[in-house]
């Protein structure tokens, strides 16, 4: 595995509140959505660095935002107010609200079915909805012991969830059952990220400053990469342990062996899975 340096920013802009999540429109490449701690969902044109729309219906912190991969005008958001909201890029008012019973930590569209989404909740469950009949969930996936902090679709019929019970779970939407539980990383209090390769690989961060990668057929980590402590003056990594550091974000380049991993010290690594 190797590390690389990032090039200088080609654009820069400032949101009015601390950002919790980012999502690029998969069709309109310059359009970015962000959610923030004020509960606002904002749309940006990254080509010119300006905000184009501000969506302010959430009553508490908005943790998550996601663009549809089927409809380029549709996006969703989830908040501590227990609500998932569906928006379109040409209206300031939401077009639908799903009322949850606890804080919504994450929300994600199905990559192939534009009316299907999942969200993770502080009630320890994964909730799946069909937006064509949103009064009742398609299913509620129960098995985690603490809040569900992330959900990702491994395939159109499979969901990966991450929880602060230090586990990941693979769910089948066909059987509505847990297929496998992945354990080895540590996650009890922080958001440590979750990503899939677009194939059989899953990765997450950990509160021991390590990235963990799991293969879908194995319950234990197949690959790990531990960050060193970075000297703030020299930038050189040191082997000493600092229990306050954790890997906070991971992102896999679809259908490749390349991933990004970042820790709470602000270090970003480009890692190649061999």
Instruction: Write out the strand line-up for the largest beta sheet, numbering strands in chain order.
Output: 1-2-3-4
Under the CATH scheme, which class of the largest domain? Mainly Beta
- Gross morphology: globular
Domain module count:
2
Task: Bin the strand percentage.
Answer: over 45%
Instruction: Compute the average pLDDT.
Output: 91
Report on the biggest sheet: 4 strands, antiparallel
Structural class: mainly beta
As a whole number of angstroms, the C-alpha radius of gyration is 18 Å
CATH superfamily of the largest domain: YVTN repeat-like/Quinoprotein amine dehydrogenase
> How would you spell out the order of helices and strands?
EEEEEEEEEEEEEEEEEEEEEEEEE
**What is the helical fraction, as a range of percent?**
under 10%
- How many distinct beta strands? 25
* Named CATH topology of the largest domain: Methylamine Dehydrogenase, Chain H
Low-confidence residue ranges:
none
Number of alpha- plus pi-helical segments: 0
Under the CATH scheme, the architecture of the largest domain is 7 Propeller
Distance between the termini: 7 Å
